[in-house]
């Protein structure tokens, strides 16, 4: 009786990048075969449909066996079962990580993310939560990621740890990279690691002492004389430089109260969670309704921040600069005129 066998013998593990992406995207073997056929692979290699099916199944089995190694990328480089060249290993790791990041985009409310989508994040968080040193560097070294991907993962870890709300409708116009940019600013300026770079959870937890100090900024809105002086200084600097001057002058006190109140309430977990919503509702939306351009926003916030240094009775310049340095850059990134 004749028996037909498909035999593959070799040393270097063959991995097709297109098939790997189809596997990452969750396609079945039959779906992947159909996609490859539509892409003209049969004509390109003068192969039959049976050979294509066999090749696709073989590669899917290989990816499934490699999956556990992708969970611990350092092991992938040292194992002997699969002879995968270093450049190909890098592609496997980057593609797998990019797949996770792309799935998170548009649904960054990672606290409620479930099943497979959340697995990569949980593995990263479990490894880095007890490590000392910079979060991005720890992720990069342990998971062999590029600096860009390591920063993206760090952003997700940071947001999940502090339970920032990012899924509300008001925030849907923002991209993952908008949030990741702001996460980088918060990590570098408002966490414990901004002061001490060798403590546990240094880049994950916000600096509680700094959050308490932010309450001192309320004097800018509770002291009427100081509020009036601040307004006068800012408006003097802005007059004649923007078409939105009248709106800036009329709304100065409300906008200032919005920014300072956000600062003063960050000791509360709920207000930390609503940080981005508050920025949009209390500052970005009012400015957008007055038709401020991005240049108007930059001009206003620059003078608003700098003018506080001229106020004689305002004694919290260091805290102010640490706060407004992040707020300005986040708003610039979030304000799409």
UniProtKB/TrEMBL annotation:
GO terms for cellular component: nucleus. The lineage of its organism: Eukaryota, Metazoa, Chordata, Craniata, Vertebrata. InterPro entries: FIBP (IPR008614). It comes from Seriola lalandi dorsalis. GO terms for biological process: platelet aggregation. This is Fibroblast growth factor (acidic) intracellular binding protein a. GO terms for molecular function: fibroblast growth factor binding.
